[in-house]
Amino acid sequence: MYNKLFSTGTKAMLAGAFCAGVFMSCHKDNTSPTPPTPVDTTQLTSAQAEDSLKYLMYQIMQVTYGDGGRTLATGLPTYFWYSSVPKLDPFSASYPNADTLLAVMKRYAINTATAAPYDHYSFIDRNGTLTNKLMNGISASTFAATTSDFGLEYAPVLVSSGSNQVRIFVLYADKNSPAGKAGIDRGCEITAVNGTTSFTNTSSSLQFVYNAIMGSTSTVTLGITRADKTTFTTTLNPVAYSINPVLFDTVYTAANNTKVGYFGLYTFASVFNDKGQATYTKTALDQAFTKFTASGIKNLIVDLRYNGGGATTTAEYLDSAIAPASAAGKTMYTYKYNDKIMQNLAATGLTETVKFPGRTGGLALDNVFFITSSNTASASELTLNNLKPYVKVLLVGEKTYGKPVGFIDFNISAYNHSGTVKYLADLYAINFATHNANGSGDYYTGIDVDKAAVDYVNVPWGATADDDNLKKIMGYINTGAFPTARAAQLNTETVNGLRTAIPNTKPLNNFNGMVDYRLSKEMSKLK
Known about the structure:
Blueprint: H1 46-62, H2 98-105, E1 110-111, E2 116-117, E3 123-125, H3 129-136, E4 152-158, E5 165-173, H4 178-181, E6 189-193, E7 199-200, H5 203-213, E8 220-225, E9 231-236, E10 246-253, E11 259-265, H6 280-295, E12 299-303, E13 309-311, H7 312-322, E14 331-336, H8 339-342, H9 345-348, E15 353-355, E16 367-372, H10 379-387, E17 393-397, E18 405-407, E19 410-415, E20 421-428, E21 430-436, E22 451-452, H11 468-479, H12 486-496, E23 513-515, H13 517-523
Parallel strand pairs: 11-12, 12-16, 13-23, 16-17, 17-22
Antiparallel strand pairs: 1-2, 3-20, 4-5, 5-6, 5-7, 6-8, 8-9, 10-11, 14-15, 14-21, 18-21, 19-20
Helix pairs in contact: 1-2, 7-10
């Protein structure tokens, strides 16, 4: 299906193609800045490394990706909105680092519908952690990454209206992570953090919790109260682990005795790693869909409320498992690049159309429900948008984030003539937009839900009696319409002590985006 692009699980290791200008002589042209003087990598200073990164980032985005950003004849600008950006000097004192330069470049393309820049997405990954997490399904420990994590996300909630006291609830924990293996899961309350048992809605208190759980490079000791009120204390060590994106899965029986599959997914780590080997992501998804197929489900619920996206290949894999047989061989979605790349697709080896495989997963679903929130972004939105032309898709929860564009990962490394290498960064600047088979896309302000629902953060996974999203979905499956009784919902909140997070306080360190690492490999061929 992918004659040029689909080399499964190939990471965009473009060091050979993107040799930084400070180490090798560069061809000058009339549209690109003069590169700095070559130096030896053994003598490289931090300032020289930053100049190299700024120069090469600018070249790749605005001038040419070919031959390390050095030769116009073998490449094209890659930035989706390159034509909106005026000529800039990356070595100007106005840009002390590459992040500052990138921030300026992102300001120029304006969305007339919002009067704000389109690009609030592009960024630089300076330690390679994200690439390894998404491409290889490993939480950390790469050739450049130095951090690990505990594998959980949490949310603070107010004890009561008008109170300054805060309780901390776990949103989710990866089953393979230190937190997951310790028995921490959604519905658990964190009652103590390194001996501290009282938390307030103040920046100092919330920052203390964040630093201990999300920003620590050493151990953390947590006091935990489970949803059943049992308690335990555990000390977690930050380690690398194979990501298991499936947080929970089960099969329900609806009122008409039909089966309903449900699973939650928190990230789109790739289904194959850079060696072409299946990752734990593929294993976990295959196990869930084997269960759903064996149960003969007629409705499927995909919980993406905390999923900021990831690898497009995983979105494709999931869509192929969900889509009906009638979608086989048909268009799943299309890519749109900048005008220069679109005019030279054959030369770049990039693809414009992605199709469903010749055989889909075999499910015959009446409805596919997606639980979404403002944290549901990019590859998550791509997944649900791709299915709309082929099956009835209903969204429940909150309007999605709004990111119909994605990245090609450009790994920027520096070399001298002897081949000594210094990793600089991975560049994630917007390179393409996507549209489904009906031409629908451009949802920069998010995708609206069919039924609004509340995210009660102290409710365990799969609790249909208290999870407002599941309750409304099961109501639709049982009756053919979403329930509307808000008064009953308010009573349930009071009786069952259901809690919502303090607005804008969920840390949610997950990546928001979609990356096609296959395209990175293809573009690396042009040297």
